Structure formats: C-alpha cells, structure tokens
Amino acid sequence: MAIRIEPREPRTQSQGVEPGYAQTAQRWPAQPLQRRPHTASELTGPSSVLRRLAPVRGDLAGRGATRAIGQLIHLRTRVVDEDGVPLPGAVVEIWHCNAAGKYIHPNDTHDAPEDPNFYGAARMVAGDGGLVELRTIKPGAYPVPGTGGWWRPPHVHFSVWGRVWLSRLVTQMFFPGEPLNEADAILNAIRDPEARERCIARFVPSEKHLIYDYQLVVRGCKGTPGMP
Amino acid sequence: MKRLVPSAEMTLGPFFPREFAQGANDLTRVEGRAARGEAIEITGRVTQADGKPLDNVVLEIWQADAEGRYDNPDFFGWGRAATDAGGIYRFRTVRPGAPAGRAPHVNFLILYSGLMRQLQTVMFFDASPDPVLDAVQPASLRSRLIAKSIKPREYRFDLRLRGEGETPFFDD
Fold first, then answer.
1. pTM score, whole prediction
2. Spatial distance between the Cα atoms of B90 and B42, rounded to a whole number of angstroms
C-alpha cells in the first residue's frame, strides 16, 4: 500500500515565527505556504543516503584513557513511522555540544572549554527494531548570544531520513527535569503539552549506566485515509 | 490502530557539523561511476528578509534520473550542499527527465538556524504544465520557481526565504 503524508497538526509543530527567537522573523516566509498534490516525486526518496554520505563513528564518549569529560550516558533512540512500524536501516545524524556547553564548530563563540577527547557528531544506521544506540556524554547548557539570558537546555540534535522525501525529520531531544526546559524558545514553540513532552527523553533506571530512551516518529503512514 | 503523531520538527541550529554538509553535492557520479544524462550545474544564493546572504544553510535535493525514473539503481537522485559565506550553494547533477504526469523538476529542502522546521520548494526548468507548479497561487508567483539559464548547462535558482521576491514554499 502506498505511503501517505497527512498535513501537519499545527499544535504539534512550530508555526515558524517565534517571539522568543528573533532570527525566525528574518527567515520564515511571510507569505502563506503553498499546498500541492503529492506525486511519485514527493512520495519516493533515497533508499540509503549512505551511498553518498559516509558513516561517522557511533561513540562520542571517547575511548579508554582518552574518555571525554562528562556524565557518560547511553542514548537509545527508536525510529518508527506514524503506524508505529520500526525503520531498521534508517540513517540518523546526531550532534551535540560537550559537557561544558561548547560545540566543535567555528561559529561557536561561547567562552567554555573545548574537550580534545570529545567529538560531537555521529552518523549511524538504525538496527533491528529501528534502534539507534549511542554512547556519549550528557551535553551541557549554553547561552544564546544577544538574547539577554536565553540559555539552551541540554539537548541533542537529530537528523533522520524516513521512507520518502517528505518523511525527512530534523529535531532536538531534551532531558527530563531540566529547569531550562521551561523557558526554552525552541522546545516551547510546540504548543501542545503532550507533543512537547514527547520531545523529552525518558530516564531508565539501571545499575550500570545512565540510560535515556527516546522515540522519533517520522512522517508517513499506510492506513486508510480518514480512519486513523 | 491510532496513528502516532510525527515528532515535532526543530531548527538545525547554528552548529550543524561542517563536515556533515561536505562532499555530497555532485550527483553526476554514483559510487565512482558516471551517471547517464546531461551534466548540469545548479547554483544560487540564499538570502533572508533584510537581503543578507546566509552562511552554512543546508540544502538537500531529490530528483528523477535523466529518463524521469526514481528507482534507477545507477543514479542516486539525492544530494546535499551548504552555502558559503556569500550565501552561495552549488550542485552538479544530471538534467532530470519528465516523470509520469510531471514536468522535469528538482525538489529542494532547506534546513537552517532560525528555521523552526524544514522548508520545501521545487525548481523547474521552464513553465511547462505541472500539477505542483500549477498549484502555486497566485499564478504570478510561479515564475519564481523557474531556474534562470545562465549559459548552456548552468542554472541559477536563488532562494529568498522572506521579503521582497520571496520564494514560494510548500507545506505538505
């Protein structure tokens, strides 16, 4: 059965211009977005972008004595579609800052220490059950320059390829219990409280590791229209 | 069964790893082999409301092969580029054929800091009838989705995110 892409539910997605995030008013279109019919062009997609993008190591916590500084965490992310069907083979890019809140990026001007043993980027493939397991360290918080006190809460960036071109997902994952979550202009752009809650990982008690579970739902379903 | 709600999209942020955006903007080759078809170059400048060019914007494209097919194992119709400090991106690809029921076109996806979710648009080569181009309203905006031919095999497709000459974008 063919894949369908249903319109976005407005309360579960940012509407583009966010009062707490000045650049959105320079960059989000002023004109209403256009609607279009969906054809094979929108409802197909690259089988595996690894034909053009190389995998990048899937352990950001360093090795042995060269361990990155920070709280070691195990991040278990499951990639599913709207029907809840897992997507083994889905390619996922993950990036985040170090424990002090500093990215490995020339644009990051924050006065926080770099960590020579931390490399903040991975490109991985979902395994059985759509699972992507990443060992890393918990990212720190950092201030957004020129905003008079907006600090980004600890978060992890994700970029995911789903089944078709319109399934592409770029998002961020947050950590439970972080006070900065309450005022973050990006997390709170999601007006629906349940949808916002789903952007926060679930802590899983375990003796050996700090485990966080997270689920990414990419767009696309096969069910009958009007019968969700 | 109740459908799951798709994850909330969020901005790429200013710190998308530079190396993630490199080395994937040449679709004329796939795994070392030359793709069939006429090689073309697509370039353009990405600007924001005040006209400022934007650095490190990530653009991804998806297109049919030279015969208008999407499932050809010898052509990989996906690529990614990032803009330079002057807001310029560059793709090398093959001219897509006409898929069934469509005019030749290249799908564009734009990801950037301050873009709360992805923007989608489409580049066409001319004003031939097409169900997506013809869905753009008002009709006077359609010409903004047609690339300018600079010289043979070179096309210019500028993207104005907001403001004067704003590119039409799609919501799906």
1. 0.96
2. 6
List CB contacts (< 8 A) between B159 and chain A. Answer: none
Please tell me if residue B148 touches chain A, with a CB cutoff of 8 Å: no
Domains of chain B: 18-160 (2.60.130.10)
Domains in chain A, CATH or no CATH each: 69-218 (2.60.130.10)
DSSP string, A49-91: GGGTS--B-SB-S--GGGPPSS-EEEEEEEEEETT--B-TT-E
Phi then psi dihedrals of residue B88, to 5 deg: -95, 130
pLDDT per position in chain A (228 positions), as tens? 689 999 999 999 999 999 999 999 999 999 999 999 999 999 999 988 999 999 888 888 887 678 999 999 999 999 999 999 999 999 999 999 999 999 999 889 999 999 999 989 999 999 999 999 999 999 999 999 999 999 999 999 999 999 999 999 999 999 999 999 999 999 999 999 999 999 999 999 999 889 999 999 999 999 666 554
In chain B, which residues have their Cβ closer than 8 Å to the Cβ of A144?
Answer: none
